[in-house]
Each structure stands twice: as structure tokens, then as C-alpha cells.
């Protein structure tokens, strides 16, 4: 894997997809954002995002990773990661809606194989077509890294379940029609189930969530007060909800890394350009050895992070167990991306400290990645546990 700001995949088919994706991101989507004045802290509405979902679907990008029977192109995880990195490197405000991260097929995760025919028809196929949107509700105020501390409960009641609890950080909640909710079965200590919950159901309220340090208004709280959910909405078997959820998290944890790599790549390119064009004492900034060394360290971090991520994805595509590698990649990519952004801010100086500057936004975004999808400390715990069992 050679180093480049605009890498070209060896596979001609994938190279063609990357070229078309870049054209859409830099052309039509950029114009849509510019015409509407969208920024990363804009309060986006469903009406703002739906045109992107549908246009991306028309172009073949929305849900592109899915099997052909669902309108996708049956991409490998590695191929999908290449596209996710490109989106991350584009700097587009609405990039999260192109492949289906924001309420679309990627937000739902790998749950098609757990869904019944009824659930596919009512929830997942409309999701794939960009007609419906979803959020994933697992986290609670005191149940983040320790998900087993969740207090949301489900009680079987005839041909339905009654759910009560309060979920937080439900990304895409402001735009979603339904949530995939994980709840503990009432009266048990360690039995969890997952459910499709229509967000307009009686007893279900979607409230404004906390605004993360990235400034994006994409989070909601899901408040359930004796919310009745049909038994037909149980995802998988009763008692297997946490396994479904954590299985989704393991794969998604690895697939979040390319997005962070794209952001880091963008920051390095912006820093290189800044160093070439900014003058100090009549010389370009890049003439200073201190700046040269910063850029070199940033490039080394990016190359190492990319290499290990794509090696792990290749192993995942071969069907290998990559739980250890997922922990390793999430840890290293999160820490390396933050180091890169920290140096990018330093190189940009005052501009890097100014709200509205892209590097300043990316710095805040990458700081979050050290916590989201499992903190760096949780990744280290997982790595240590795996090392203890290796031969």
C-alpha cells in the first residue's frame, strides 16, 4: 500500500468507484452544501438529508456494500473501507449521508442476517431505499463502556413487549423513523434482547440529545415509558440482543477506522498546503526543519494506521477472527489520528484555533474518536484480555 493523498486502488472496478465518488463529493454534493450554507454545526433536518440519500442511491453509493438482491454491489469490507476513507478525506459536511452512515444501511449495521422477512420488508428494505431512517440505541447515561449496566427493561406481555428506559447518544435520532433498541429482560441479571421500535409509538419520545464537542446536532435521547412493541419486532432470538449489538460494534469499530483515516489524511494535506503557502521571514513555513519533522511524523502515523487497518480488514474478508485486531486498530488509529490533528492545529497556528476553520473542527472530531465506539482504555483492556489467551 503506497502513500498518497489520493490513493488509487489496484482493482480497476474499485478505482472506478473511487473516481466517481470523488466526483460526486467534490462536485454535486459540494454545490448542494454551498447553495444551502450547510456547516458542521448546522441544525440539519430530514428534508436536508433526504435528497442526499436518494441521489446517493441513484448513483449507486447508498448501501453499496449490500448484496445485489438489496440493490448493493456486494462489496467486501476492505472495498467499503476504501470508500469510507474517501468520504472522510473529502471534508464534506453531508458526507455521512452518502454511503448510509447517517440513519441509513450502515447505521443499522450487519443486522440483515438476523431479521425476519417481515422485518426486512417493513424496516430494512425501506431503509436501504432511503425511504426510512434508523438509529441504534444501546448507550445509557451510566451504561456506556459497561453496557451491562443498562437499566432499560423489556417485559413480555402477551403478543407484545413493554419497554421502559432512557437511551442517550442515539446518533441519527433526530432524523430517524425507528430505533434498534437493546433492553435487559425484566427480572434477569444478564439477559438482553433487541427490538425494532417505531419512534412514533405511544410511550416513546425522541428528545434533543446532548451536543457533542464536534458541534454536530445529530444525537437524540430515546425515552421509553411502558412503550408497547409487537413481538414480531423482536430482532433475533430473545436473550441474544447483546450478542447482536456487540457483534455489530466489533465490525463497526473496525469500519469506523477508515473514516478517521480519511479525516487524518485531510488534515495532513491541509497542513502540507499551509506549510507550502504560509511565509515566515520571507520563506515558506515548510523551510523550517521543525515543520518538516512535524509533517514527517504525521505522515508516518497515517501510513502505519492505514497499513494495520487494511491488513485487519483483509483478514476479516478472509473470514478470520479479528477481535484482537479490531481492538488494536481502534486504539492505534484513534490515538494516531488525534496526534496528527494536534500537529495540524500547531502548524496552522492562530487559524487552527479559530472556529469555522476545518482543521479546528477535525481536531474536535478526532478527540471524540478516542472515546466513541469504545474508549482507548477499553481497547487496551480488550487487547490485554486477548493477549492472555493467545498461544
Automatic annotation (TrEMBL):
Domain Acyl-CoA dehydrogenase/oxidase C-terminal: 239-387
One function term, GO molecular function aspect: flavin adenine dinucleotide binding
Record-annotated Acyl-CoA dehydrogenase/oxidase N-terminal domain positions: 21-131
Signal peptide from the UniProt entry: none
Cofactors demanded by this protein: FAD
Any one GO biological process: fatty acid beta-oxidation using acyl-CoA dehydrogenase
Gene3D superfamilies: Acyl-CoA dehydrogenase/oxidase, N-terminal domain (1.10.540.10), Butyryl-CoA Dehydrogenase, subunit A, domain 2 (2.40.110.10), Butyryl-CoA Dehydrogenase, subunit A, domain 3 (1.20.140.10)
CDD domains the UniProt entry points to: ACAD
Domain Acyl-CoA oxidase/dehydrogenase middle: from-to ranges: 135-226
Keywords carried by this UniProt record: FAD, Flavoprotein, Oxidoreductase
GO CC annotation, single: cytoplasm
Domain of life per record: Bacteria
Pfam family, one: Acyl-CoA_dh_N
Regions that span the bilayer: none
UniProt similarity note: Belongs to the acyl-CoA dehydrogenase family.
Name of the protein described by the UniProt record: Acyl-CoA dehydrogenase
Source organism (scientific name): Streptomyces griseoviridis
Taxonomy of the source species: Bacteria, Bacillati, Actinomycetota, Actinomycetes, Kitasatosporales
Amino acid at each position: 500500500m503506497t502513500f498518497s493523498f489520493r490513493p488509487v486502488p489496484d482493482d480497476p472496478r474499485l478505482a472506478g468507484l473511487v473516481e466517481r465518488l470523488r466526483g460526486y463529493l467534490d462536485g454535486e454534493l459540494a454545490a448542494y452544501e454551498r447553495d444551502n450554507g450547510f456547516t458542521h454545526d448546522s441544525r440539519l433536518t430530514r428534508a436536508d438529508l433526504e435528497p442526499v440519500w436518494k441521489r446517493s442511491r441513484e448513483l449507486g453509493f447508498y448501501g453499496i456494500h449490500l448484496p445485489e438482491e438489496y440493490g448493493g454491489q456486494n462489496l467486501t469490507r476492505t472495498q467499503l473501507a476504501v470508500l469510507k476513507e474517501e468520504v472522510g478525506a473529502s471534508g464534506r459536511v453531508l458526507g455521512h449521508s452518502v454511503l448510509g452512515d447517517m440513519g441509513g444501511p450502515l447505521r443499522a449495521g450487519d443486522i440483515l442476517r438476523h431479521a425476519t422477512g417481515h422485518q426486512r420488508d417493513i424496516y430494512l428494505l425501506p431503509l436501504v431505499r432511503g425511504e426510512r431512517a434508523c438509529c441504534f440505541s444501546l448507550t445509557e447515561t451510566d451504561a456506556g463502556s459497561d453496557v451491562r449496566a443498562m437499566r432499560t427493561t423489556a417485559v413480555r406481555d402477551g403478543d407484545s413487549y413493554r419497554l421502559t428506559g432512557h437511551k442517550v447518544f442515539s446518533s441519527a435520532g433526530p432524523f430517524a423513523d425507528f430505533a434498534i433498541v437493546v433492553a435487559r429482560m425484566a427480572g434477569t441479571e444478564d439477559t438482553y434482547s433487541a427490538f425494532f421500535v417505531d419512534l412514533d409509538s405511544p410511550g416513546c419520545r425522541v428528545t434533543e440529545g446532548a451536543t457533542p464537542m464536534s458541534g454536530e446536532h445529530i444525537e437524540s435521547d430515546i425515552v421509553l415509558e411502558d412503550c408497547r412493541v409487537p413481538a414480531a419486532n423482536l430482532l433475533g432470538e430473545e436473550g441474544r440482543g447483546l450478542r447482536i449489538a456487540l457483534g455489530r460494534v466489533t465490525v463497526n469499530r473496525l469500519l469506523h477506522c477508515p473514516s478517521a483515516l480519511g479525516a487524518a489524511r485531510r488534515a495532513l494535506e491541509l497542513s502540507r498546503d499551509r506549510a507550502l503557502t504560509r511565509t515566515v521571514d520571507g520563506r515558506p513555513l515548510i523551510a523550517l526543519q521543525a515543520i518538516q519533522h512535524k509533517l514527517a511524523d504525521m505522515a508516518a502515523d497515517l501510513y502505519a494506521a492505514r497499513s494495520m487497518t487494511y491488513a485487519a480488514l483483509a483478514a476479516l474478508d478472509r473470514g478470520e477472527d479479528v477481535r484482537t485486531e479490531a481492538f488494536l486498530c481502534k486504539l492505534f488509529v484513534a490515538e494516531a489520528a488525534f496526534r496528527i490533528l494536534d500537529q495540524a492545529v500547531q502548524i496552522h497556528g492562530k487559524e487552527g484555533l479559530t472556529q469555522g476553520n476545518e482543521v479546528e473542527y477535525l481536531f474536535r472530531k478526532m478527540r471524540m474518536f478516542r472515546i466513541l465506539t469504545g474508549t482507548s482504555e477499553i481497547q487496551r483492556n480488550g487487547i490485554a484480555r486477548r493477549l492472555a489467551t493467545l498461544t
